[in-house]
Design goal:
Growth Hormone, Chain: A; 327 residues; single chain; 14 helices; mainly alpha
């Protein structure tokens, strides 16, 4: 074989490597050539800046837990509403009720990937999540005015379609700020919102369903959707001012803190947190589709969701069947 035939591919590889190194060095030089020479900052001073940065981040990102709680409350309140006549008022058979439960996940699955492709190209992801939350709060509120099976199916599908944007978007924002070592703890705290919602859903449901029956001529289950939907919309408005965006444009941080945040991610990943110019819109999607670890995670997360779904959707019905309708 003629060795000269392999030379172009070797050169191409070297050129790509040089290009990546140049891109990373350019990113670091941008930090160095600014008003703050972050890369050469005194270690003790940098540690203090990082501590202050993470304290601000943790405070602002704590809102993600509350949003996740509302995310689950708005999708699971149908189980509590069933105890106060939702199924009877809408004249739903058991099969139709089960369809209303499962149709939410159809919309959820359809929207998750497209949503993350969009949010990754938005400079203000906090506004995106806030608008999404405001819309699903409106949909949740409108669930309280449906009068038939078709209306319930439509609102449940749309609720899942819109809610799908939150969790992947929250994980994406966290990954823009926290290193891989810090991210595991923050993700675990975020997922606690799922479990906390199961406790709060029962308390809120019991309070509304026990005291709002017949108020202004409406059933208590309708008030449950209206009240929880209104709370969701209030949280959505506050999220627009509290949630962080990206380390390059977030308000509420000093210039020094933002520079340190960018340098932290560059050091953690080994390259600048920017998409390659050679990678198209679906480049990241193809990387996910061909990664075996993603499918392992899918199996684990499916089992996790199945276990929680029984608790969320069917425990209240089980309790009512054994004479504990107020539980």
């Amino acid at each position: 074989m003629d060795p000269t035939k392999e030379r172009p591919s070797s050169l191409d590889s070297n050129e790509k490597s040089s290009s990546n190194n140049l891109e990373n060095s350019n990113h670091t030089s941008k930090l160095d050539n600014g008003n703050l020479n972050v890369a050469q900052m005194d270690p003790a001073h940098r540690a203090a800046v990082e501590k202050r940065l993470k304290r601000k981040l943790d405070t602002r990102c704590a809102l993600f837990v509350l949003i996740y709680i509302m995310n689950y409350l708005d999708r699971n309140n149908i189980a509590a509403a069933r105890l106060k006549g939702l199924q009877d008022d809408l004249k739903l058979s058991d099969t139709q009720y089960a369809t209303c439960l499962s149709i939410l996940y159809v919309g959820y699955i359809l929207m998750q990937v497209p949503s993350n492709i969009m949010i990754n190209r938005i400079s203000r992801p906090s506004l995106y999540i806030s608008v999404v939350m405001l819309v699903w709060g409106v949909i949740s509120t409108l669930t309280g005015v449906v009068h038939n099976f078709g209306g319930m199916v439509a609102t449940r599908f749309l609720l899942g379609f819109i809610e799908a944007a939150f969790l992947p978007g929250a994980l994406l924002i966290l990954s823009k700020w926290y290193t891989s070592r810090e991210l595991a703890l923050r993700n675990a705290i975020l997922f606690c919102g799922n479990l906390i919602s199961n406790a709060f859903s029962a308390l809120i449901g019991a309070g509304v369903l026990s005291n709002m029956q017949g108020v202004m001529g409406h059933s208590a289950w309708r008030w449950l959707f209206w009240i929880e939907g209104a709370i969701t919309m209030a949280v959505a408005i506050s999220a627009a001012f509290i949630l962080p965006d990206l380390p390059t444009n977030t308000r509420g941080f000093t210039e020094e803190e933002l520079h340190v945040a960018q340098l932290r991610m560059t050091e953690d990943v080994g390259e600048a947190d920017t998409d390659s110019a050679e990678q198209g819109v679906f480049g990241g999607l193809m990387m996910v589709v061909t990664d075996v670890k993603v499918y392992v995670m899918m199996i684990v997360f499916t089992a996790y969701t199945l276990g929680l779904s029984f608790n969320a959707f069917f425990v209240s019905h089980f309790m009512s069947s054994v004479g504990r309708s107020n539980c």
